[in-house]
């Protein structure tokens, strides 16, 4: 099976939380089980130089961002047993932090559209595109509206995973005109409470929606925990399921983890780092 795993962060290249841990371990576990799982993420300015030195240029192309087109460079690298792709635009990604910029909506609308635009350049037709959280939530919506009827893109299934439902990519509608570019007749896909909601669009257009555990899948159908999305999730409960996160036994091995002050095993302490 061919899988494209889309994340705004992935270890060891860039990370700020649990998403980077999952994106840096789940695809590797799938590859070890014989699946062709590849990862795509932004080429951030914060990526360490020694890791950038391992990247190889593939091509450059332009990406539709609402009413304009923006440059995108495409690079790849092999890390352990997985292929990583990196989407480059220094205006969007050469910054000191991953998130928290005034134009995050535009940055990740660009990233989401670039994911789909890059596929012919790598000659990779995935069976599944697996997107994660609001930063890639536009991918299934863009696929549904702009790519699903293109013969080259036919029969790709979109899966969307919610890691933290509090962050939904919710903005005023001016963001659609300037950054997202959904046609007026289709804005209902993203509309919630009078605003544009990227995660709501993913729930509508992905074929399956997953969460990080079965318990969380039940919690987010409750008004107290859904941050407003309970109606959407309950209407589409048939496509929602929870899959419990695993743990990377190599990265979190206390005998070898270089980030620990002191390595240890269940038998003895192994000295200071």
Structure description:
With 273 residues, the chain is of the alpha/beta class. The protein has one domain: 3-Layer(aba) Sandwich (Rossmann fold). It is 28% helix and 27% strand. It contains ten helices and 14 strands. It has a nine-stranded mixed sheet with strand order 3-4-5-2-1-6-7-11-12, sandwiched between helices. The chain has a three-stranded antiparallel sheet with strand order 8-10-9. Helix 5 packs parallel to helix 7. The longest helix has 19 residues. The radius of gyration is 19 Å and the shape is globular. It starts with a strand and ends with a strand. The model has no long low-confidence stretch (mean pLDDT 94).
How many individual β-strands? 14
- The whole-angstrom Rg is 19 Å
Largest sheet: 9 strands, mixed
Q: Give the N-to-C terminal Cα separation.
A: 41 Å
The low-confidence parts are none
* Mean of pLDDT: 94
Number of helices in the DSSP assignment: 10
The CATH superfamily title? Glycogen Phosphorylase B
Oligomer: single chain
Q: Hey, roughly how much beta strand do the residues contain?
A: 25-35%
Q: What is the overall shape? A: globular
């Amino acid at each position: 099976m061919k899988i494209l795993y889309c994340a705004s962060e992935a270890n060891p290249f860039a990370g700020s939380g649990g998403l980077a841990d999952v994106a840096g371990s789940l695809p590797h576990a799938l590859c070890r089980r014989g699946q062709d799982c590849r990862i795509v993420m932004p080429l951030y300015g914060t990526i360490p130089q020694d890791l950038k030195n391992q990247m190889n240029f593939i091509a450059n192309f332009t990406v539709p961002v609402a009413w304009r087109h923006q440059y995108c460079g495409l690079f790849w690298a092999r890390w352990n047993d997985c292929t990583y792709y990196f989407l480059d635009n220094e205006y969007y990604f050469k910054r000191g932090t991953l998130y928290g910029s005034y134009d995050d909506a535009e940055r990740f609308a660009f990233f989401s559209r670039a994911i789909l635009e890059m596929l012919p350049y790598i000659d990779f037709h995935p069976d599944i595109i697996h997107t994660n959280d609001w930063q890639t939530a536009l991918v299934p919506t863009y696929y549904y509206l702009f790519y699903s009827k293109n013969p080259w893109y036919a029969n790709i299934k979109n899966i969307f995973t919610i890691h933290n439902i509090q962050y939904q990519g919710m903005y005023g509608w001016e963001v659609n005109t300037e950054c997202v570019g959904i046609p007026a007749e289709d804005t209902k896909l993203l509309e919630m409470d009078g605003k544009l909601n990227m995660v709501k669009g993913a729930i509508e257009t992905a074929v399956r929606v997953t969460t990080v555990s079965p318990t969380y899948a039940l919690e987010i159908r409750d008004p107290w925990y859904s941050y407003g999305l309970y109606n959407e999730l309950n209407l589409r409960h048939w496509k929602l399921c929870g899959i419990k996160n695993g743990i990377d036994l190599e990265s979190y091995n206390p005998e070898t983890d270089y980030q620990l002050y002191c390595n240890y095993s269940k038998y003895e302490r192994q000295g200071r780092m």
